[in-house]
Amino acid sequence: MKGTAVLIPRTGKGYGYGHLHRAALIAKNIGEGASIYLENSYDKDRILRLLKGIRITEDPWKESPWDLVILDRRETEKELLAEYEKLGPVVGIDEGGEARRYIPYLIDSLVAGKSNEQPNYSFSVLPGIPLRDIQEVPLNRILITFGGEDPEDLTAVLLEKLKKDHFFNGRKISVVEGPLFKRNVRYTGTDVIHCPDNLIDIIPAYDLVITSYGLTCFESLAGGVPVILFNPTGYHRKLSKASHLPEIGVRRPDIKKLKRLIVSDSSPIDTVKEWQRRIKEERKEQHNIPESLIFSGNMQCPFCRGTNSALIRFKDRTYYRCTQCGLIYSSVFNDGRKVYNNRYFFNEYQSQYGRTYLEDFKSIKKTAFRRISVIKEVASKTGVPEDEKPSVLDIGCAYGPFLDAAGESGYIPAGIDVSGEAVEYVKKALKIDAFRMNFMNFTGGVFDVITMWYVIEHFEDPDAVLKKINRHLKCGGVFAFSTPNGKGISGCKNKKAFLAESPADHYTIWNPLTARTLLKRYGFRVKKICITGHHPERFPLYSKLLHGILDFISGLLGLGDTFEVYAVKIKDMQAK
To answer: Which domains does the chain have, with CATH numbers?
Structure first.
């Protein structure tokens, strides 16, 4: 991973060693950009020895912003999440607290169990842990381990019962003594492994691991070693059964059942086979989460700055709906931003629409003339002079079909685009001024008209964009834009499918009501909204015989999947 990440595991009395252990594994996979923050001083000296070679940060807020903030805390309060979000974009692993509803990116291992709040991503075993071949041998070499702390003293309880039942006879028993154990492990007939550096490397030397439901359980399965679970709580036992893993009780081990499982011809080994099959299936499409995640978008509403609960989660993003303004916005975690170059305008555009952007130029230009007629209609009502050539700035002009139409319609056109190839075409082929840049870097003058056709949704900070448009637009000037309609038939029919099909770099999803509400805040008055993108075939009861009726209904109810906004600037607004 390029960049920085701070990992914040839950430590403290009663929380064991699992969260810290997993954070250490992730930190090692990330490399030199990773640091661990220890929230409290409980056994800090001993923990620091365990984290040898991993950078520790004493105050991550002083070092912010971080590229990723990775929480492995089990439970996090909403107020505390807000503090962590000041450090950078937050990823939560197995989060079970109230922050689960709000956290930007949620990863579950199967340790997390069932939840109404579905994660963005889940895995059985950390991606960095290799799968090893299964050894089908008698289960005579047994490793007993209950984490770094064993707060319920399961190690001592189990060993006492095994000793009474003469379980040690003919078997090699090894016991892991964790760094946070309350007492030393001393039992005749057992080997004690004190604070191993890496349990993953030790596990394959054994035929069976007896542990509780948690990280070690799944590391053993990945290592090809059967597991039998002895759990500290009924909740852990419930998870064991839900995962179809063999178990021998809660706090009081059933040794008879343990013996039956050990001599069974298939049960523990078949479990390993099934879990390894499942892990392999997961890893076919698995990328290195969380190490490879790059954040873009928003953790709060870009306009109201409020925190909202997640609306829908996908593997690469989380959508939220602002409770104040109604805007849908997203936090995006993927391998990087989309690049708009010739490949997009030709290969990708052709794949989506059946022809390249330049092959579609005339059709787009025809739509541009319609839009210009609406702009003129709106402008004539606001007192913009018609005896001089008005100026128009098209943001995201691409190869310039709107600029070409605007020039032919009596405007002085200029364009902005991030694509160098598109800008060169506009300048050389169309002989129109164009600038290759992000609009936020534009320092030109003021215009009579500013347009954005399917562009506003691509900006991560639309608040700053609208303030800047206000500064570069004359009073009485027209601001026009188009964007997908979150209240169209596709969004209303199936919100999840609609958002799943939205490009990841559409950071905001608008609707006509939200547009009216928000533009008013930025010194604009909406004069006209045109609902476009009507698709009668997307209605649930579509029939070719009803095509005309459904088209009429779509227009009447504003159910088109896109819409255009035409607003005038009524006052200046200074950016903060």
So the answer is: 5-122 (3.40.50), 141-283 (3.40.50.2000), 473-576 (3.40.50.150)
